[in-house]
Design brief:
- This protein is α/β, with parallel strands linked by helices and 231 residues long.
- The protein contains five helices and ten strands.
- An eight-stranded mixed sheet has the order 1-9-10-6-5-2-3-4, with helices on both faces. It has a two-stranded antiparallel ribbon with strand order 7-8.
- The longest helix is centred in the middle third of the chain and has 17 residues.
Length: 231
């Protein structure tokens, strides 16, 4: 019998700690998908910023975690990805979505953090662009503009993303760069740190390398919440 998952609990501070990747008896998304978003994070966002029947869109839908959480909460999930993993995820580039303008009540986005993972061979994949390349941020900017276009006025968007440190290429403050890009279009609502439970953080050799190399391992993800306000 699998271990019992802790009950869902709303987060009330700007430091979020999720007890497990998924919640409940079933599952949300796939635990085998590398880079899967914690379902607890999405649940907290939808509980706070949406209502039953709202349309929730994820332009980087991955294994479909957002769609599953939306369904659990009685929201209408819409998912897009250049590498769709299930039939209910539509094949589309986040920079050019087949979604009507101002048709979405909430946007959740968990884009690639540079080229640290191989998602597939589609040349439109932002995950093929290194975070040290300005083209990566230009691509994210185009995706953020699409999110702004499809989102209804006075509704919210959340971005879940992590900084990058590479021994050869150095530190890239992706979170800070993305906040600056988003503030071109949206009003900032809050900036939350979500504790990471990456398996590599439990490896003693990783910590030894960080200590000897004088760098830090990524211990948290940025969760940036913004609001569309055109009046």
């Amino acid at each position: 019998m699998p271990p019992r998952r802790p009950p869902l609990r709303p987060q009330t501070t700007t430091l979020w700690e999720y007890p497990s990747q998924q919640y409940g008896v079933g599952g949300q998304g796939s635990t085998a998908y590398r880079g899967a978003t914690p379902a607890y994070v999405i649940w907290n966002l939808l509980e706070r910023y949406t209502r039953p029947g709202d349309v929730v869109m994820d332009p980087f839908c991955g294994s479909g975690t957002t769609l599953d959480v939306a369904r659990d909460l009685g929201r209408a999930g819409v998912g897009y990805d250049v590498h769709p993993t299930r039939d209910d995820i539509q094949h589309a580039d986040a920079r050019r979505l087949p979604q009507a303008s101002e048709s979405v009540d909430f946007v959740f986005a968990d884009p690639p953090y540079g080229d640290n993972l191989n998602y597939g061979d589609d040349p439109r994949c932002i995950g093929q662009l290194p975070a040290t390349d300005e083209a990566y941020f230009e691509a994210l900017d185009a995706a953020f503009q699409e999110c702004f276009r499809v989102l209804k006025n006075r509704r919210f968007m959340a971005l879940y993303i992590c900084d990058v440190h590479d021994k050869r290429r150095g530190f890239v403050p992706i979170g800070a760069r993305c906040l600056a890009l988003l503030m071109q279009y949206f009003n900032p609502i809050d900036h939350i740190a979500v504790v990471r439970h990456n398996r590599t953080l439990k490896q003693s050799n990783r910590h030894r390398a960080a200590e000897e190399g004088g760098f830090y391992l990524r211990g948290f993800n940025h969760l940036i919440i913004v609001k569309k306000q055109t009046d």
